[in-house]
Specification:
Helix content is 33%, strand content 23%. The chain has 4 helices and 6 strands, in the order βαβαβαβαββ. Helix 1 (26-42) packs across helix 2 (54-64).
């Protein structure tokens, strides 16, 4: 059994012409650090898949202050306009390729984070607050997933 952790980036600056270049706010940086500490204490992710957008990279860096990842990759399939079936297929392939990794953290954006949960666990499409993490248990032998819950920085 593996764990898949799907995280929305922390609070970002307002929309700009170049959405990919938006930075985290001070609150967003604090959300990333807080969730990094929570993840280190509870979920212990050892693999990271992160969107190339600046705010997702900054969130992953904040989380990484508390966690050392065995495997890390920037993935263009998990941007806001990404296709959840492509992202889920790629994630499942990576899980098979890296059996040493038991817990996978995906740092991405709305709406793909919600769609990705639904892709893995049909009928579950949570709305993510900034910095929130959905917890999913994944059986790599059957490719079946179970949605467990969602945790947000304000709830901790």
């Amino acid at each position: 059994m593996k764990t898949i952790l799907i995280m929305r980036h922390g609070e970002a600056a307002p929309m700009q012409a170049d959405d990919a270049a938006r930075n985290l706010t001070q609150v967003g940086h604090l959300e990333a650090k807080k969730m990094g500490q929570w993840l280190a204490n509870t979920q212990k992710p050892d693999a990271l898949l992160v969107s190339p957008y600046v705010r997702a990279q900054q969130t992953a860096n904040g989380v990484a202050e508390s966690i050392t990842f065995k495997y890390s990759e920037t993935c263009a399939d998990i941007t806001p306009e990404g296709k959840p079936h492509v992202a889920a297929d790629y994630l499942e392939t990576l899980i098979q390729m890296h059996p040493e990794c038991n817990s996978w953290l995906i740092v991405a954006h709305m709406p793909i984070v919600s769609y990705l949960v639904d892709q893995l666990c049909p009928g579950n499409m949570p709305i993510f607050n900034t910095g929130a993490v959905a917890v999913i248990h994944y059986n790599e032998n059957t490719n079946r997933s179970e949605y467990i819950n969602i945790n947000a920085p304000a709830d901790l």
